[in-house]
Amino acid sequence: MRYIYLDEAGTSAKEPVSVVVGIIVRTDEHWNTAQQELDRVLKAVPDRYRDGFVFHAKSIRGSKRLREGWSKDDRLRLIADVAMIPAKLGLSIALGKTNRVGPSQEIVDRFELRGQF
Question: What percent of the chain has pLDDT above 70?
Answer without folding.
Answer: 86
